[in-house]
Amino acid sequence: MNRIDVRGLTKRYGPDTAVDDLSFTVEPGQVTGFLGPNGAGKSTTMKIIMGLASPTHGSVTISGRHYRDLPVPLTHVGALLDAGAVHGSRTAHSHLLALAASNGLPARRVGTVLERTGLTSVAGKHAGGFSLGMRQRLGIAAALLGDPQVLIFDEPVNGLDPEGIRWIRGFMRSLAHEGRAVLVSSHLMSEMAQTADHLVVIGRGKLIADTSMTDFMTANGVGTVLVRCSEPGVFARLLTAAGATVRDGPESSLVVSDLAAGEIGKLAAYHSVVLSELSPQQASLEDAFMELTKDSLEYLGATS
Ligand SMILES: Nc1ncnc2c1ncn2[C@@H]1O[C@H](COP(=O)(O)OP(=O)(O)OP(=O)(O)O)[C@@H](O)[C@H]1O
């Protein structure tokens, strides 16, 4: 099975613990968002997955095998860890060709990945002159050289313009749609809301949450509707009978989920219930994420 299994992973640098007994799984066919504030241990975990650092304790396997035991690693797992790591004097084509040759991959893959990442027209240009967005694409092309079923991207949208961000999001989704296991790190929840199916949240190296995006949104009030009316008790029963989930909100209001605002309005009209408020709640996922990770922040600014 194409997946990443992180089990009891711990990484210490001298007295500092960067990753602390971390366990989670990255499943195939979905984008798993790897979230945490700066310094949480995301990059360290990703480096260990890619065999670039060794764990102090615990293990990581890719589709059941340790990175060091994979005969041609790039055919199993590809990663974009540092988009700046491109030899500036090489063309995009020669950079990928050198990478293919040194990793025992067929040269014909170069054309395929250039095409897939939209770089064919600039393949003969020096990568040194590439914009950040193009360097990101080149890094992704390199990660795809071996056509791996497992992919890892460390903060891939950092510094990109809106068009670049949109392209990367769509690209991650398409890789997952093909059945690949995709792990993407970010320190922004808003970024993940539009890309990830699953969330793994860490703080100070420890697991804080391992949940589906849908469950996380529901638990944090996204998708609920605030309703105010003259007889909340009566309307709550009507809503429940219509399949909604209802709980009491502030000042005799109702917080309704599992039924869209439009349907709630229609139900009220049908039963001649007068509504004084019907507002879909835009609970900020970023707020929910801040709340979740607040105890794990290394440096908290003083509040006056
Ligand atoms: N080579 C190293 N030597 C010493 N300490 C390190 C090393 N690499 C990382 N650390 C420390 O480990 C902790 C986790 O860092 P890491 O880069 O993995 O976090 P991160 O979640 O990726 O953060 P960011 O979003 O800022 O990149 C930090 O406190 C960092 O200073």
From TrEMBL:
One of its GO terms (molecular function) is ATP binding. PROSITE patterns: ABC_TRANSPORTER_1 (PS00211), ABC_TRANSPORTER_2 (PS50893). Residues 4-229 form the ABC transporter domain. InterPro entries: AAA+_ATPase, ABC_transporter-like_ATP-bd, ABC_transporter-like_CS, P-loop_NTPase. Transmembrane segments: none annotated. Keywords: ATP-binding, Nucleotide-binding, Transport. Belongs to the ABC transporter superfamily. This is ATP-binding cassette domain-containing protein.
